[in-house]
């Protein structure tokens, strides 16, 4: 088990509706208050995922905000992809942009740091360990640190300075409370680069004794990142000093790091407000003045809190342990940190083609689609359908600018990280669920064009019916994921009346069959001559046939056709036996150690990475839902905890959180397109989802306890219910799903042919759950 590699043993203590403090002596005191039932923000702990491999940040952001104002430990490393890791004891800056839970690190733009003499300077600490840290730094303790949605606070111990952070959509506000000092300074660094990132051009311009502006351009994971900023101090600085750096072929020197000098009295506050933009300094100023025209910190902090309270209140849970509530509401919170807003208040943004574009609504980016198509985007269709239209249209705008749909995009760039064209299931799911404002024909053109290109193995997929291993590495993963995406295109073609396209893409959706090896029972790579690729082993992570997984983990990825997959394996009995082996066979550590993206093991199943996230729900497709209920309960309680190391793998822009949020309510989109949710086992006595039209969908679990997690029977809106799934229209219609729970499995409930969720090779798929 790889869940507790950073064994902090710490969790959050809720002190009130607007404050969460973390500390080693506070774990056992409980987290609920009388106001908690009305204010779910008190259950959110932004430190969950900042330890181990979660790669989350604890700082201030509003839902899907352009600004993520958060502390940076100041140096690079896998653990510090978000800029911060819970095991660290130093802070080197507070910057305005961060990823949440990714495996690659860029951003950290517009970095501030307050200090007073005598200064701690990075060059004087261990250069081997902290070689990339620049400028001032300070020690800090988690005893002096707190966070709640939209707010962060920490004491810089070396200086006696308290730093508080809050944010709006496009602006960040910092509040520094100083000790008495004749030499107080605030540094601003737009040259700093960490992890994959590298500055290509930057400049700081001092406008007057309060205002500075400039830009940072960088290249790393994304090749053309641009951040323009305008910052203003609440108090005039006495003087400033700037450091120049050389950029470009002509080695033009520009000021890219500066220090601003103040004298302060004890307890005096200096605030810094900053607006950012991908287009221009003028737009950054427009964003700042439109959203944060003054320095009223409490006003913006309260507004951020109220916005989070409203969004988190769309789903409420009761019963269960306090720690489970913290895990749940933190999951809903973290699911909403990405995608991020990318357009300015005037609608402008940097296009994928490098040109300035204008949208009439909102442009989003930071689409980690290989991860988030599985559960995060389906969750948005329930928790925030009002934003789904703009997210989908942002993907279609990306197509207009780049000629193909996004794979993994951010900052107006395509990174081409990971595989597939998983914007397709997101778009189709939203369209089939009736989300308004999506042009079906425009979307279909973008999907079909992307799927018909000759790139990334598609040429052999079209000619041979599978991606050939001797043509493209990771061929098995590519084939399986293309098959699902193509099935989604087929559903869209069917709805729009494109019958030839429906038949063509349905045929491509069967491509998974061409890689199934009946002798081994696994999906394997084939060469162009049809022979199995050599050098294969089902537990091997280094065959080159799979991406971030092995044959055991990837062979289950047929979410659109579990019945067809089971038929290949000789029927449901064999399918279930193979699933049992997947979850209950000990996984020996591979030679050379575990890959960094393998964590959260349960048997051979890897919960810390996405390819198998639907696997425990496949029991519901195979007449054995009770077996999935046991495994799901164990995953939820063992691999998700309310601690800094409580996320066992990269959080991945909301996917890990969305998995938990769905599962804790008792259902999950094992097939993430079309509005079918396989039933698992709820962890709360009651979950209530607010849907359009002032309706509520409620899931109740009677007789639920730590031992009573097996479903004995169910009713939907008062009528006996024996299906292993519910539909999206069940949810949006409002109503009540009631489970009766027990400590022993009911092997008869939802275990007949009529109970099974729809599958491509089985009964007709229900479009949008109708």
Structure description:
The chain is of the alpha+beta class and 770 residues long. It folds into two domains: 50-311, Beta-galactosidase, Chain A, domain 5; 315-769, alpha-1,2-mannosidases domains (Glycosyl hydrolase family fold, Up-down Bundle), CATH 1.20.1610.10. Helix content is 24%, strand content 24%. It contains 17 helices and 38 strands. The strands form twelve sheets. It has an eight-stranded antiparallel beta sheet. It has a six-stranded mixed beta sheet with strand order 19-33-34-38-35-36. It has a four-stranded antiparallel beta sheet with strand order 6-12-17-16, with no helix packed on it. β1 and β2 form a beta hairpin. α6 (385-402) packs across α7. The longest helix is centred in the middle third of the chain and has 22 residues, at 475-496. The chain is globular, with a radius of gyration of 26 Å. The chain starts with 11 loop residues before the first strand and ends in a 28-residue tail after the last strand. The model is unreliable at 1-36 (pLDDT under 50). Residues 283-743 form the Glycosyl hydrolase family domain. Monomer. Its cofactor is Ca(2+). Keywords: Calcium, Plasmid. It comes from Fulvitalea axinellae.
């Amino acid at each position: 088990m790889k869940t507790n590699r950073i064994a902090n043993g710490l969790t959050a203590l809720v002190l009130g509706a607007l404050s969460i403090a973390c500390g080693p002596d506070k774990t056992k005191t409980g987290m609920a208050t009388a106001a908690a039932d009305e204010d779910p923000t008190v259950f959110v702990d932004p430190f969950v995922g900042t330890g181990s491999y979660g790669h989350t940040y604890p700082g201030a952001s509003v839902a899907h905000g352009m600004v993520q104002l958060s502390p940076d430990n100041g140096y690079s490393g896998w653990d510090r992809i978000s800029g911060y890791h819970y095991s660290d004891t130093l802070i080197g800056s507070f910057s305005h942009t961060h990823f949440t839970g990714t495996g690659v690190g860029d951003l950290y733009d517009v970095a501030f740091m307050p200090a007073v003499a005598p200064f701690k300077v990075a060059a004087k600490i261990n250069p081997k360990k902290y070689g990339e840290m620049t400028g001032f730094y300070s020690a800090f303790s988690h005893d002096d640190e707190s966070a709640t949605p939209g707010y962060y606070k920490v004491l810089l111990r070396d200086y006696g300075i308290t730093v508080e952070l809050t944010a709006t959509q496009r602006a960040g506000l910092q509040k520094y409370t100083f000790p008495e000092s004749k030499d107080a300074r605030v540094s601003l660094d737009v040259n700093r680069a960490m992890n994959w990132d590298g500055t290509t051009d930057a400049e700081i311009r001092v406008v007057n004794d309060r205002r500075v502006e400039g830009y940072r351009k960088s290249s790393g994971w994304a090749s053309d990142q641009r951040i323009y900023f305008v910052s203003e101090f609440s108090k005039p600085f006495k003087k400033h000093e700037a450091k120049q750096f050389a950029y470009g072929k002509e080695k033009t020197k520009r000021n890219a790091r500066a220090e601003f000098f103040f004298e302060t009295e004890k307890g005096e506050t200096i605030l810094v407000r900053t607006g950012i933009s991908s287009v221009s300094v003028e737009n950054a100023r427009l964003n700042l003045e439109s959203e944060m025209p003054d320095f009223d910190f409490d006003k913006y902090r309260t507004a951020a809190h109220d916005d989070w309270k409203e969004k988190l209140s769309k789903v409420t849970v009761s019963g269960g342990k306090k720690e489970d509530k913290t895990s749940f509401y933190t999951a809903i919170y973290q699911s909403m940190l990405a995608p991020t807003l990318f357009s300015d208040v005037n609608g402008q943004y940097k296009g994928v083609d490098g040109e300035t574009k204008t949208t009439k609504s909102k442009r989003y980016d930071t689409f980690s689609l290989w991860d988030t198509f599985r559960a995060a985007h389906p969750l948005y269709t329930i928790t925030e359908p009002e934003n789904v239209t703009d997210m989908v249209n942002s993907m279609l705008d990306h197509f207009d600018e780049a000629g193909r749909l996004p794979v993994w995009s951010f900052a107006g760039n395509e990174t081409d990280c990971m595989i597939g064209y998983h914007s397709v299931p997101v778009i189709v799911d939203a369209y089939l669920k009736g989300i308004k404002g999506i042009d079906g024909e425009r979307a279909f053109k973008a999907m079909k064009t992307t799927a018909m290109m000759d790139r990334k193995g598609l040429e052999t997929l079209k000619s041979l019916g599978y991606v050939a291993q001797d043509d493209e590495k990771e061929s098995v993963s590519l084939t399986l994921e293309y098959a699902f995406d193509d099935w989604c295109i087929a559903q869209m073609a069917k709805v729009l009346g494109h019958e030839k396209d429906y038949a063509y893409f349905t045929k491509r959706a069967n491509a998974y069959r061409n890689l199934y090896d009946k002798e081994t029972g696994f999906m394997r790579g084939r060469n162009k001559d049809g022979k199995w690729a050599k050098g294969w082993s089902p537990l091997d992570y280094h065959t080159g046939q799979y991406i971030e997984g092995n044959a055991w983990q990837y062979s289950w990825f047929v979410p659109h056709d579990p019945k067809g997959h089971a038929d290949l394996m000789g029927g449901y009995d064999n399918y279930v036996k193979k699933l049992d082996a997947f979850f209950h066979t000990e996984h020996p550590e591979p030679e050379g150690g575990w890959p960094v993206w393998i964590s959260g093991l349960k048997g051979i199943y890897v919960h810390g990475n996405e390819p198998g996230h639907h696997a425990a729900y496949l029991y519901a497709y195979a007449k054995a839902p009770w077996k999935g209920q046991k495994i799901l309960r164990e995953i939820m309680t063992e691999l998700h905890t309310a601690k800094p190391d409580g996320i066992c793998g990269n959080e991945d822009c909301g996917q890990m959180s969305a998995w938990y949020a769905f599962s804790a309510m008792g259902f999950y989109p094992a097939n993430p397109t079309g509005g079918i949710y396989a039933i698992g086992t709820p962890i709360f006595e009651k979950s209530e989802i607010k849907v359009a039209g002032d309706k509520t969908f409620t899931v109740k679990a009677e007789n639920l306890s730590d031992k009573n997690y097996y479903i004995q029977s169910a009713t939907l809106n008062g009528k006996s219910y024996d299906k292993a799934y519910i539909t999206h229209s069940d949810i949006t219609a409002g109503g009540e799903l009631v489970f009766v729970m027990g400590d022993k499995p009911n092997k008869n409930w939802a275990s007949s042919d009529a109970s099974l969720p729809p599958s491509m090779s089985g009964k007709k798929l229900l479009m949008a759950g109708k």
